[in-house]
Design a protein that fits this description.
The chain is α+β, with helices and mostly antiparallel strands. The protein is 45% helix and 17% strand. The protein is built from three helices and four strands.
Length: 121
């Protein structure tokens, strides 16, 4: 009745395209993927192309800084050998609109930039 599946597809494509623009801007972003409004983003050491050591806490930094800036993202780390791999899940509500998507993207842009300043020499 409310065309939620189609709306999720359209909004998800818009969000994915915006996140891919962040990938071009931020060397910390390794991959952006997903379908509809369930998207993932992983983080790599841009010098090596490998994941950071888990002790660096990249996922935790991204999740906590996002929360402190008004955005909830979900940690998804340790997918490589149960220990390596920093990633987040981005799963906004189905009722999100383009203005809110841009707010989400702007917060992630700031957060990722802040984390890059800490971890990239």
């Amino acid at each position: 009745e409310n065309n939620l599946v189609e709306a999720s597809r359209v909004k998800g494509e818009f969000l994915l395209n915006q996140l891919l623009k962040l990938k071009v801007k931020h060397p910390l972003i390794g991959e952006v993927r997903g379908k509809g409004l369930m998207l993932g983003m992983d983080f790599i050491n841009p010098k090596t192309g490998d994941f950071y050591d888990a002790k660096m806490g990249i996922t935790e930094k991204i999740v906590n800084y996002s929360f402190n800036n008004g955005l909830i993202v979900y940690a998804s780390k340790g997918a490589i050998n149960g220990a390596l791999g920093d990633a987040i899940l981005i799963t906004p509500p189905l009722v999100i609109n383009e203005e809110e998507i841009m707010e989400l993207v702007n917060i992630l842009d700031k957060v990722i930039g802040d984390v890059e300043k800490e971890v990239i020499d």
